[in-house]
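Moderator note: this is an archived Q&A kept for reference. The question asked for a predicted structure of one protein chain; the sequence and the answer are reproduced below.
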Amino acid sequence: MTETDKAGGLLAQIPKGEGKGLPPVHLWNPDFCGDIDMRIARDGTWYYLGTPIGRKPMVRLFSTIIRRDGDDYFLITPVEKVGIKVDDAPFVAVSVVAEGEGEQQRLRFLTNVEDEVEAGAEHPIRVVLDPATQEPSPYVHVRSNLEALIGRNVFYQLVELAVPREIDGQTWLGIWSGGEFFPIGPQS
């Protein structure tokens, strides 16, 4: 079976929904069928056999059946589980809308695959600093144990919304959403 046959067969196995949400991949435990040559780049571009997947509806469809088990990512159907590579996070937050202000502020993110999440207790924001460069990599939880890397332009919008708050004797800049405060960096 060729790589192209594997991807086409995987698509055929995705249950047809009635617009009622995402497939229950967390409930499916099919046999592992090996890895396929599919990769999600840090910028959110999906590649198959080294070529970008240009059809956005196909990327959206694949994005609904992705699951992370430990550090590994898989595309899952009720009868098949294939491994894929993810350079950083499987999604990228490409826009944010802020409503309200202060502790009442709500931040709604849209990802490159059209998932919408509101940051809060169920969808926390976290920032990882590169130990060598101190460059931030911000993320928002999307679903299960899947995150979206917050795009640079979106992160700059969050920085504009940041307010100082004392945490354990140190002043942090952070953002409020859904009644939660998310530190994004120490105040210098």
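Archived answer notes: The chain has two domains: 3-86, 91-186.
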